[in-house]
Amino acid sequence: xxxxxxAGLTFFVLLLIAQPLFAEIRLPAIVSSNMVLQRxxxxxxxxxxxxxxxxxxxxxxxxxxxxxxxxxxxxxSVSVETTGSKSPQNISIRSNQSDISLDNILFGEVWLCxxxxxxxxxxxxxxxxxxxxxxMAVAKSNNPNLRLFTVERAGSKTKLDEIGKHISWQQxxxxxxxxxxAVAYFFGQQLQEILDVPVGLIHSSxxxxxxxxxxxxxxxxxxxxxxxxxxxxxxxxxxxxxxxxNAMINPLxxxxxxxxxxxxxEGNMTEPEMYKKLFPAMxxxxxxxxxxxxxxxxxxxxxxxxxxxxxxxxxxxxxxxFREAQLQCLDLIPDSGIAITIDIGDDYxxxxxxxxxxxxxxxxxxLNQTYGYTSVDHASPIFVxxxxxxxxxxxxxxxAETGLYSFxxxxxxxxxxxxxxxxxxxxKIINSNEVFVKSDEITEPVAVRYAWRNWTxxxxxxxxxxxxxxxxxxxxxxxxxKKMEGN
Length: 487
Description:
Layout: H1 3-18, E1 36-38, E2 42-48, E3 54-59, E4 66-69, E5 75-81, E6 89-94, E7 99-115, H2 117-120, H3 134-139, E8 143-151, E9 166-172, H4 174-177, H5 182-195, E10 199-205, H6 243-249, E11 259-263, H7 272-290, E12 297-300, H8 320-332, E13 336-339, H9 355-370, E14 382-389, E15 392-398, E16 404-405, E17 413-416, E18 421-424, E19 426-430, E20 434-438, E21 447-450, E22 461-462, E23 471-472, E24 480-481
Parallel strand pairs: 1-7, 7-10, 7-11, 8-10, 11-12, 12-13, 18-24
Antiparallel strand pairs: 2-5, 3-4, 3-6, 6-7, 8-9, 14-15, 15-20, 16-22, 17-18, 17-21, 19-20, 21-23
Helix pairs in contact: 5-9, 7-8
C-alpha cells in the first residue's frame, strides 16, 4: 500500500472520529408518542444531540417555548410543567438537524411495576398456570386512557442510559394487555376507573430474580460484594448483583412516576434477616436517584407455597420467617404498604392465580395512602400484644378497630409453654377484635404462632377481608414443634 493511500485512509478515519456523537436529536425509548406524563407536576424530558446543539421544545398546553443546549457529553434535559387536562397533548422537539413530534400524550398517574415472576406473570397466564378472570379482563380491556410500557429482560455490567428491547407505549386493548403483567394491569385498570384520569403503567420485571440484581452497586456497598469482572452477563442476569438495575431500572430515571409496585421475594426466601437490610436500601436508593422524595412504595408479601417440604419450623427453609421479615419492612421503609397473600397461595404452584386479589390489595394501599380515600381499608390486622387469661393467650391486633372475621373458624394456631415446644391449638375471635388461643396440652402458655409453615391457608381477617399475616409472639431461635398424630 502506498504512503499516499495510507495517508488518505488515516485522514478518513480521523474524519469519522471527529464527527459529532449525536448528529440528530435522540430520545430515550420511554419518551415517545402515546406516553403518559405524571399530571399536575414537573416532569423531565431528556435525550441526546450534537454537543452544544440548541434544542427548542414546544408543548400544546403552554405558549412558552423551552430552549436548552446539549452538554459536552451530548446529553440534554429540561423540566416541563404538566396540568390536569384529560385531553391528548403533543410535544415538538426541534434542532437544526431534527424535527420530532410526539403525539397523543396524556397527563395522568404513572406507576412503575417491578419484581420477579409473580409480577411478570402475564394476564394470559403461563402454560398450565392460569390467572383467574383473565379472559373477561382481556375481553373488556379496550381503554385509550390506560397506557402500557414494557421493559423486556436484560442485564448489564454497567449502568445503561437507554433501554434495550421493549414494547413502547400503547393503549390497553385485548392485543396489548394479554401479555402484560396481570397484577399491574388489574391495578391500573381499576385505578383509572376509580380516579377517572389516565393511568400509565411501566412494567420492568424478571422471573426468578433476587433483590440484589435490582440494586445499584452503590446501594449494595457494605451489604453484598459486587465484582462483575469475570461474570458472564449473558447467563442468569437475574441473580447477578446490579445487573437488572443497570439495564432495566437506571434507563428509566428520571421519568417522573407517582409510585412503585413491587412483587418479589421468593428469590431471597432463605435470607430473611439480610432482606430486611437489602430491601430498605434498595427503596432508598431508587428514591434518591429519582429525586422525587419518598414516593409511595407498595409491595406484596410472598404467598404460602410448599417449597419442597412443609416440615420446617424453626429453619429459614420455613418461608414464614421471610413473610415476617417483609412485614417488618413496613416499619423500615417510610411511605410503604403491604399486600398480604396468606389466604391465596397455591401449595404446588409458586404463581398463585388470584392476581386480581393481589392487585386489589395493592390498590387499597394506593387509594388510602396516596389518593386520600381514607374510607377505603388498606391495612391488614397486625399482632401487637398478648396476655395470659383463663389458661390461654389473648392476642390483640392493630388495624382491627371494626373487628376480626373468619369464614369457617380459625385454624393454623399453635401454642407453647416455657419449654418452647409448640402444640396445635384452638382459637376463636372474642370481643370482636381479639383472638383467644388455648390447648389442653399446655397449662401455662407463653407464646403463640399462627400460620407458621411454608404451606398454610390463612383464616384470620378483618371485616373488610384483609388477611392477617403469619406471625409469632416469641423471638425464640430454638423452638420445636410437637409431632401429633395426623399432623
